[in-house]
Write a structure and sequence with these properties.
The complex is a heterodimer of chains A (428) and B (308). Chain A has 428 residues and is mainly alpha-helical. Chain A contains 18 helices and six strands. Chain A has two domains: 69 residues; 309 residues, no CATH class. Chain A has a two-stranded antiparallel ribbon. A two-stranded antiparallel ribbon of chain A has the order 3-6. A two-stranded parallel sheet of chain A has the order 4-5. Chain B has a single domain, classed as ABC transporter involved in vitamin B12 uptake, BtuC, CATH 1.10.3470. In chain B, helix 1 runs antiparallel to helix 10, helix 2 runs parallel beside helix 4 and helix 3 crosses helix 8. In chain B, 51% of the residues are buried. Classes of the chains: A mainly alpha (428), B mainly alpha (308). Chains A and B meet through helix 1, strand 1, helix 8, helix 15 and helix 17 of A and helix 2, helix 3, helix 4, strand 1 and helix 9 of B.
Chain lengths: 428, 308
């Protein structure tokens, strides 16, 4: 008891030392304004928090569970499907389809952003979650996609529907070119190289003013649907969609169109990821993540397998970028900072690295929650950081216990080993 | 090409390089001992810049006038508190992950770096901060020069190089001549064996984080005094640059960090001076990528052998 009190006190003293100058003495010009209560409150909070937590850990058996949850892989022996039940999938699809008509315009705009982040999260999940390659420059591929559309329109009048595959291809190409030499290296180096690459792309976009417009950015037109435009008056040589269908013009049409288009793309991507996970390539990704040396000795070519994951992730990032450009109507380099990469990574991490449902949940959580908690927007990034650290310390394998797909042999088909052998012998 | 302009870039590069080298020490030592890239190291540097400004303001609040006394006091306070930050980060975010998978500490480090950035932003404000000029004065070579024909070295620039060399010498002495340093080297060579022979490896790892943070604090203070202005985002760029320096010199090697820092500083400053200053960061990052691809062991490092 007393040792716990003294430990908590020591932690509080350290906390006070750490907090005192930074939170207590605020710089204003070359002078200081003193807020002596702030470090005291923070240190008191640490004291109480540490004490309570250590008490709870000891008395409620949290310590054991904490230790258990950190042990490496825990295959759960449940028989059946690996995903959520079909009922829930149906409910989710129904909700997604009805959302614009039930919750209104504002919800749709939030949902579009959430879907873009979901797309990016799913893309990065292939790289980080499935293949175990830490990509810190994911935003570079996102930028490649966005600028493919923006510059493609600016110079060649490229339409959205052409920019979509082209942006995806270009992003994948960039990923391949970057990945090929680097993926042979020690794993951590990949993180640094991708980080550097992301910054290079951003700096080039920012500094190459004559082509990219630099910090002023490039404007992007809104996509058309089979030549039908979503403007009040035709601007791109097509027919406005409200005239074609002879309905009243409404700005809601654009967001509805983008929402459903994104919904289709995301649904296709989810299906693709689920399929890929069960295919040999998906298994090779996960196997490489778990043990590279073992995989290589079993004849899996680590570079090509990793490259496929890296390129695929980059491609999804490119698609996300094209959609982002279409949504914003304008791109400039400030949208592609390292923080974006970190945010997408946070989605993957909080979703439990590798779990598709987890990523969906985390992407929705990380885009909807900040909208609801506008008043606390200062603390948004701080809490994302805290959540990342807590996730890693507490449950590096994700909030949701992952179940791997596996084959179940029906009970009646199971051979009764000893009997079978003796029969075989008897027949001979 | 004017000899004086070349000389000036040489001076600038050397000054820049010594600060890179000081920060690179933190990356290289941590990587050497636990094989992990400490992404939050740049933020530790950023915190030391804030601490420097805060303690300078505090010194003037108490009416301290003598420049050497102020600088020494600020140095000690900044180094001590920055080291405490480094130690706490290790305790909170890395120690619990010692036996986790390889990705976990990296992600945790990114989390810590977001936390530190925003902790500073919320408590100190997002605006640019500054310190008053403390040490004015320049040397000119040759001293009788007219027009542009001279090399200019400020007192602060020479202080940076001298302090960097002194701190590196001190660190090298600790690593090579003291019992603590011997334990560090043993832990770096073989952690399990060192532990079996009675070295408290957990403590040694903490010590390495503390030493890395202390060196970053020295760099943070010197750079802050030199440039005079900073914000909560400086750690990111400086972090990658210093990591590049560590890779250039050969990650895991202590003299390599300093060498890599100086090489990077010189390369960057010549590139900015003679090629294009807009793309100097792009140049530094490209150097990093090229080195990682073609010579991942750097100048002085030993190639890594993966053992099963």
């Amino acid at each position: 008891m007393s040792s716990r009190v003294s430990r908590a006190l020591r932690v509080a003293v350290v906390a006070l030392l750490l907090f005192a100058p930074i939170t207590g003495l605020v710089l204003s010009g070359y002078q200081l304004s003193i807020h002596w209560q702030r470090p005291l409150w923070l240190a008191a909070a640490v004291l109480v928090g540490y004490f309570t937590l250590s008490w709870l850990m000891q008395h409620l058996g949290w310590l054991d569970r904490f230790a258990a949850s950190r042990s490496a892989v825990q295959p759960t022996a449940t028989i059946g499907l690996s995903g959520p039940r079909p009922v829930w999938i149906g409910a989710a699809i129904l909700f997604a389809l009805l959302l614009p008509f039930v919750l209104g315009k504002y919800a749709v705009s939030v949902a579009i952003l959430a879907l873009i982040y979901l797309l990016l999260g799913l893309g990065l999940n292939i790289v980080v979650g499935l293949a175990g390659l830490l990509d810190l420059g994911f935003v570079a591929f996102y930028a490649v996609g966005a600028y493919t559309y923006a510059l493609g329109y600016h110079y060649f009048h490229l339409s959205f529907w052409l920019a979509l595959p082209l942006g995806a291809l270009l992003a994948a190409l960039f990923g391949m070119i970057l990945g090929f030499p680097v993926l042979r290296l020690h794993g951590d180096y990949l993180a640094i190289v991708t980080l550097g690459f992301g910054e290079i792309i951003r700096l080039v976009l920012n500094n190459w003013v004559s082509v990219t417009g630099g910090p002023n950015g490039v404007s992007v037109p809104f996509p058309t649907l089979l030549g039908l435009e979503f403007n009040r008056k035709a601007k791109q040589g097509g027919v406005p969609i409200h005239e074609f269908f002879a309905v009243e013009y409404s700005s809601d049409h654009r967001s509805l169109f983008l929402y459903f288009l994104l919904l289709i793309v995301v649904a296709l991507l989810i299906l693709m990821v689920i399929r890929l996970k069960r295919m040999p390539i998906g298994r090779a990704w996960e196997a490489l993540r778990e043990n590279e040396v073992a995989c290589r000795s079993l004849g899996i070519h680590h570079v090509t397998v990793k490259l496929s994951a890296f390129g695929l992730g980059a491609m999804v990032g490119g698609v996300g970028g094209v959609f982002f450009a279409a949504l914003q109507g304008f791109v400039n380099p400030t949208s592609f900072t390292f923080f974006e990469s970190a945010y997408i990574l946070a989605i993957v991490v909080l979703g439990g690295m590798g779990s598709t449902t987890g990523v969906i949940g985390a992407a929705l959580l990380l885009t909807v929650l900040p909208e609801l908690l506008r008043d606390f927007s200062d603390y948004r990034v701080l809490s994302v950081g805290i959540a990342m650290v807590l996730m890693m310390v507490w449950r590096p394998r994700g909030l949701r216990q992952r179940r791997r797909p596996f084959f179940v042999i029906p009970a009646q088909d199971l051979p009764k080993a000893p009997v079978a052998v003796s029969q075989g012998v008897a027949e001979q | 090409m004017d000899i004086y302009i070349v000389g000036q870039q040489l001076v600038n590069g050397l000054v820049l390089g010594s600060t890179y080298g000081l920060i690179a020490v933190g990356y290289t030592m941590v990587y050497g001992i636990i094989g992990m890239i400490n992404f939050a190291h740049g933020e530790i540097y950023m915190i030391s810049a804030y601490l420097t400004a805060i303690f300078l303001a505090l010194a003037s609040y108490f009416g301290l006038q003598s420049v050497p006394v102020v600088l020494l006091l600020v140095l000690f306070a900044t180094v001590f508190l920055t080291a405490l930050y480094g130690w706490s980060v290790e305790q909170i975010a890395y120690r619990p992950l010692r036996h986790s998978n390889r990705l976990a500490p990296l992600i945790s480090a990114i989390g810590i770096s977001l936390i530190l950035q925003n902790y500073i932003r919320i408590s100190q404000g997002a605006r640019n901060q500054g310190v008053p000029p403390v040490l004015d004065g320049v040397w000119r070579i040759p001293s009788s020069a007219i027009d542009q024909h001279f090399i200019q070295i400020t007192y602060l620039q020479s202080l940076i190089v001298v302090t960097a060399l002194a701190s590196m010498a001190l660190l090298t002495w600790i690593i090579h001549r003291t019992a603590l340093g011997r334990a560090c080297r043993a832990t770096q060579q073989d952690r399990i064996m060192a532990n079996l022979l009675g070295v408290d490896t957990d403590r040694i790892i903490s010590v390495v984080f503390v030493m890395g943070a202390a060196m970053a604090a020295v760099a943070g203070m010197l750079v802050t005094l030199n440039y005079g202005s900073f914000d909560f985002y400086i750690g990111f760029l400086m972090g990658i640059k210093a990591f590049t320096a560590a890779v250039l010199g050969g990650i895991g090697s202590l003299p390599g960090a300093m060498l890599g820092g100086v090489v990077l500083g010189l390369a960057e400053s010549f590139f900015a001076g003679f090629v294009n200053s807009d793309y100097k960061d792009v140049f530094a990052f490209s150097l990093l990528i090229l080195f990682l691809i073609f010579r991942p062991s750097g100048f002085l490092g030993v190639p890594e052998v993966e053992k099963v």
